[in-house]
């Protein structure tokens, strides 16, 4: 027998409808590219998204067309997403930090036919547009008065373009499994791979994110998505915030410590989300300039491992709760978040930090397991590490055009490429990317643990650990360090600082000081480049 309940397709347009009806006055505040702070609300965002959908239809955009965005987080970018999905097209977020050739490659792969672009990124488009023949129109996210000079053809200012349509439009309806968005992984090895989100997966992902042990956003929250919409589906916040009726504070192009601090305080932000690098800049700003974070309650930190020292500073100095989270572009992107189960509720001090430093546990909607190379499930003992695999309704089942699909296993599990262990209470901790792990004498050393420890030293700004060839042990760890401005630290100091906090045989064999560590387009340490840089390095122990 079938259930007799209504079929209510999970379409993204329903989110903005809900927000406009029930939280219509909730603010969307942005630092505009033109300069001033811009204020609007969900009712207005919905109205303009309807116009945008209608205007796209006038452009001939139909179900399934890919529409690119190359833009910072602002109210206009949000309107673009809702307008695009509302006409049945697919938002394709392009990461401006990729190399221009990579941008051209992914835009060709996606066959984008129209692009919404911020003025700051016009030079990128000028360089690549001739190489993207599918691209027929360029809409610059500003008004005619601010439109920069450009050599590009088919360029129109957003405001005037949008004004050519009215909001008399009904959201298109289609099957909930229809594609809604596209995001390419950064492709540090090989070409980027396209992940294609559906309406259903976006809605379910936001409902997953809304659970009490996950983001739990409410209409009392004022959320600042610092994580850009072009990184890993914007961590789902473009849907989760309006779904929960939370106000959105969009930082635009300015993500330095001072600018973020200014918005956090002036806009009474209660919750935010971004990679550790952003928070490092904020905390460094606060260290220098002073300041308090009176309304800021919690911060989701993920994308790469959140250093223990950062969790401690937020918690002890600013009374902000860090929710360490792990996820991937392929997972829409949330996988696990670190909130305290009753088993850990009474912890404090270092024991609490031990738990807070893990990537946490999955909300309902994500299954996870850790296996050895033969796909045998490993025990959840907090020690045994193996390959981390996941399943769920917002986890990719295939890449666009099937390229790179070997990570999707026959039994339905997605091999994340991360190495992790899980403790008896289900708290997962990433120890490495499978390809970065160091194998010393047949045993694994976690580079993330070593990096985490090294950045806890007060004179260290950033640290990376890579394996370097060793005649006896195959590989041994080399610690690469960037010192904080105006500070100096010696190899001996650093090693003494690490001594006793890790197993003896994990201790780095050497420390190399550099001016900077290379990063990927999503702000992660680019270990491949580091390994090339230190390919001929001879360890003193070799
Ligand atoms: P990209 O691959 O495009 O850089 P993703 O966000 O998809 O961007 O990267 C996902 C990867 O980032 C994960 O597989 C994992 O290796 C790493 N990662 C994400 N969050 C964390 C975290 N909290 N701790 C450690 N690694 C993380």
Describe the structure.
- This protein has 542 residues and is of the alpha/beta class.
- Among the domains are: 13-211, ANL, N-terminal domain (Rossmann fold, 3-Layer(aba) Sandwich); 438-533, ANL, C-terminal domain (GMP Synthetase, Chain A, domain 3, 2-Layer Sandwich).
- 27% of the residues lie in helices and 23% in strands.
- It has 15 helices and 24 strands.
- The chain has an eight-stranded mixed beta sheet with strand order 2-1-11-10-12-13-14-15, sandwiched between helices. The chain has a seven-stranded mixed beta sheet with strand order 7-6-5-3-4-8-9, with helices on both faces.
- Helix 1 runs parallel beside helix 8 (237-244) and helix 2 (42-58) crosses helix 3 (75-86).
- The mean pLDDT is 95.
- Bound molecules: adenosine-5'-diphosphate.
Summarize this structure as a short list of keywords or feature phrases.
single chain; 542 residues; alpha/beta; Rossmann fold; GMP Synthetase, Chain A, domain 3; binds adenosine-5'-diphosphate
Distance between the termini: 70 Å
The strands making up the biggest β-sheet line up spatially as 2-1-11-10-12-13-14-15
Helix and strand content put the structural class at alpha/beta
Rg, Å, rounded: 23 Å
CATH fold name of the domain at 13-211? Rossmann fold
Number of helices: 15
Largest sheet properties: 8 strands, mixed
């Amino acid at each position: 027998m079938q259930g007799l309940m209504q079929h209510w397709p999970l379409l993204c347009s329903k989110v903005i409808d809900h927000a406009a009806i029930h939280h219509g006055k909730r603010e969307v505040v942005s630092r505009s590219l033109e300069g001033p702070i811009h204020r609007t609300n969900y009712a207005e965002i919905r109205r303009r998204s309807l116009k945008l959908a209608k205007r796209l239809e006038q452009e001939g955009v139909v179900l399934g067309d890919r529409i690119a965005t190359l833009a910072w987080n602002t109210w206009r970018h949000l309107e673009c997403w809702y307008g695009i999905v509302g006409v049945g097209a697919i938002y394709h977020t392009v990461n401006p930090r990729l190399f221009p050739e990579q941008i051209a490659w992914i835009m060709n792969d996606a066959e984008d036919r129209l692009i919404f672009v911020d003025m700051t990124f016009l030079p990128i488009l000028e360089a690549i547009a001739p190489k993207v023949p599918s691209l027929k129109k360029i809409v610059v996210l500003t008004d005619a008065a601010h439109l920069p000079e450009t050599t590009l053809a088919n360029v129109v200012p957003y405001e005037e373009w949008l004004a050519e349509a009215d909001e008399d439009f009904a959201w298109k309806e289609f099957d909930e499994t229809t594609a809604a968005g596209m995001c390419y992984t950064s492709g540090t090895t090989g070409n980027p791979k396209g992940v294609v989100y559906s309406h259903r997966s976006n809605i379910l992902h936001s409902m997953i994110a809304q659970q009490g042990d996950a983001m739990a956003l409410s209409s009392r929250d004022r959320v600042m998505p610092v994580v850009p919409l072009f990184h890993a589906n914007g961590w789902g916040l473009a849907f989760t915030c309006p779904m929960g009726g939370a106000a959105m504070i969009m930082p635009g192009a300015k993500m330095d410590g001072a600018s973020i601090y200014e918005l956090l305080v002036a806009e009474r932000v209660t919750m935010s989300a971004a990679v550790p690098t952003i928070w490092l800049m904020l905390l460094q700003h606060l260290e220098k300039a002073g300041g308090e974070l009176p309304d800021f309650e919690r911060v989701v930190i993920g994308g790469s491992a959140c250093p223990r020292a950062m969790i401690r500073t937020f918690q002890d100095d600013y009374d902000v709760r860090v929710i360490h989270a792990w996820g991937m572009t392929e997972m829409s992107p949330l996988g696990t978040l670190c909130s305290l189960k009753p088993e850990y509720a009474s912890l404090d001090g270092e024991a609490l930090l031990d738990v807070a430093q893990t990537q946490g546990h999955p909300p309902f909607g994500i299954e996870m397991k850790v296996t050895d190379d033969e796909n045998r499930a490993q025990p959840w003992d907090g020690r045994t590490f193996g390959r981390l695999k996941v399943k769920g309704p917002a986890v990719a089942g295939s890449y666009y055009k099937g390229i790179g699909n070997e990570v999707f296993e026959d039994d339905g599990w997605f091999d994340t490429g991360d190495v992790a262990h899980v403790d008896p209470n289900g708290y997962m901790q990433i120890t490495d990317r499978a390809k970065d792990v160091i194998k010393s004498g047949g045993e694994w050393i976690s580079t993330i643990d070593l990096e985490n420890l090294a950045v806890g030293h007060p004179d260290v700004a950033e640290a990376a650990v890579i394996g370097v060839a060793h005649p006896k042990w195959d590989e041994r760890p080399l610690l690469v360090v960037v010192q904080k401005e105006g500070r100096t630290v010696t190899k001996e100091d650093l090693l003494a600082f690490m001594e006793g906090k890790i197993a003896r045989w994990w201790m780095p064999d050497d420390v190399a000081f550099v001016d900077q560590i290379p990063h990927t387009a999503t702000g992660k340490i680019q270990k491949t480049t580091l390994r090339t840089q230190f390919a001929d390095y001879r360890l003193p122990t070799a």
